[in-house]
Specification:
Blueprint: E1 9-13, H1 18-28, E2 32-37, E3 52-54, E4 60-64, H2 65-68, E5 74-78, H3 84-96, E6 99-102, H4 116-122, E7 127-132, H5 147-154, H6 178-201, E8 206-210, H7 211-217, H8 220-229, E9 246-251, E10 254-259, H9 263-273, H10 287-292, H11 294-305, H12 310-320, E11 324-325, H13 330-333, H14 337-341, E12 345-349, E13 357-361, H15 385-393, H16 397-406
Parallel strand pairs: 1-2, 1-6, 2-5, 6-7, 7-8
Antiparallel strand pairs: 3-4, 9-10, 10-11, 12-13
Length: 409
């Protein structure tokens, strides 16, 4: 099986997370992703530790776990973009590329003669994806955008956390850089769509991606609740604003999540709890009824579920047809039989690792007639500079050495 993007070359001028997350997905799909890094330290996230990968002597390397999470399957080339010769290397690489991904401030690369107009003039088939906090237009366009800021502006923190008036109330940051990650995914989607457009027209295009746009775009049902209902969504803690019961419940020795998405599942739950009469109680017959009386219903369910241990409910409810799960810490997630069966932890080759490999979270996409190839772990800084410049641009060792001598690489 071949990878879906075999033969596609991506010039990756991005760093931190949103851009690298996008290009890692493209690399997983088989694209040749050439990661351009500043010779002086490279991607900022290389130093975002601990933890760092340890070498065979147990010493920390310069490879931070954060950096390694988003740069698998790429080749690292160091280029000084302030050097005229360095900029010329980028132009020559762009002529051979299908896609450029960058997350400089608005206009930052254009000042260097490496903006979309500049590179697309050299390669009209080029797809040039710019990722910024606020996009290429609008009053905040010049400002840098970080995930935390976008979570605050975009509204996710206003609906995440305990409700007002309860212990620990207040807006909370989501525990992952979710705006960066989703922008990386949307950017991947946009690039794939642009590649298909190019197949039909022969033309590349500029893609303008903004973290704030993406965040607002995936407000989804909460935005529609506001548009249609006219009520600003609030923090609801562990329960769902549109479904009940759909929350954690206490057991004899812990908690489990019960998630009833329809009336049929609720009826089964009432039978398993030994209170089938609840299914006919006017307060609980339909989803809107249960939402209106969620506190009373939660109290009844809690009283019944406390009578038995977690494992009883985790086994019995799914067998009966009621969605139920535990509340895992990350270590327990990777011990889940389903996660193991789906191959969501993989070992990827790395030259500094004492075992020769490092663990990675697998790409979750499963193709029937293509493959995800885990060719290499996140590259060391400049690991592939000589290789890429020789292979792609045809430069000999003497020319590469001369460029290094001038500070271009």
């Amino acid at each position: 099986m071949s990878a879906p993007l075999d033969g596609i070359r991506v010039l990756d001028l991005s760093r931190i997370l949103a851009g690298p997350w996008c290009t890692q997905m493209l690399a997983d799909f088989g694209a040749d992703v050439i990661k351009i890094e500043n010779p002086d330290g490279g991607d900022d996230t290389r130093s975002w530790g601990p933890p760092f990968l340890k070498d065979k002597d147990g010493n920390d390397t310069r490879e931070a776990a954060y950096y390694m999470s988003a740069n698998r399957n790429k080749r690292s080339v160091t280029v000084n973009l302030r050097s005229e010769e360095g900029k010329e290397v980028i132009r020559e690489l762009a002529k051979t590329a299908d896609v450029v991904v960058e997350n400089f401030k608005v206009g930052g690369l254009a000042k260097l003669g490496l903006g979309p107009d500049d590179l697309m003039a050299l390669n009209p088939r080029l797809i040039y994806c710019s990722i910024t906090g606020f996009g290429q237009t609008g009053p905040k366009a010049p400002e840098p955008g970080y995930d935390y800021l976008i979570q605050g502006l975009g509204g996710i923190m206003s609906i995440t956390g305990n409700p007002d008036g309860t212990p620990g109330a207040g807006p909370q940051r989501v525990g992952l850089a979710i705006c960066d990650l989703t922008t990386g995914m949307y950017s991947t989607i946009a690039i794939l769509a642009a590649l298909q457009h190019r197949e039909r027209t022969g033309r590349g295009q500029h893609i303008d991606m903004a973290l704030l746009d993406v965040h607002v775009g995936w407000l989804a049902n909460q935005a529609m609740n506001y548009f249609i209902g006219g009520k600003v969504p609030e923090r609801t803690g562990a329960w769902h604003p549109n479904l009940s019961p759909y929350q954690p419940f206490p057991c004899a020795d812990g908690e489990v999540i019960v998630a009833c998405g329809n009336d049929r599942q609720f009826k089964i739950l009432t039978r398993e709890l030994g209170v089938p009469e609840l299914a006919d109680d006017p307060r609980f017959v339909t989803v809107p009824d249960r939402n209106a009386n969620r506190e009373a219903l939660a109290e009844i369910i809690s009283d019944r579920m406390r009578l038995k241990p977690r494992e009883h409910w985790l086994t019995r409810l799914p067998e009966a047809g009621v969605p139920c799960s535990g509340l895992n810490t990350i270590d327990k997630t990777f011990e889940e039989p389903q996660v193991i069966a789906r191959g969501m932890k993989v070992e990827v080759p790395h030259p500094l690792s004492p075992t020769g490999t490092v663990p990675n979270v697998a790409n979750p996409i499963k193709f029937s007639d293509s493959k995800i190839a885990y060719r290499r772990a996140a590259p060391m800084l400049g690991e592939h500079t000589d290789e890429v410049l020789s292979e792609v641009l045809g430069l000999d060792a003497a020319r590469i050495a001369a460029l290094k001598e001038t500070g271009a690489l």
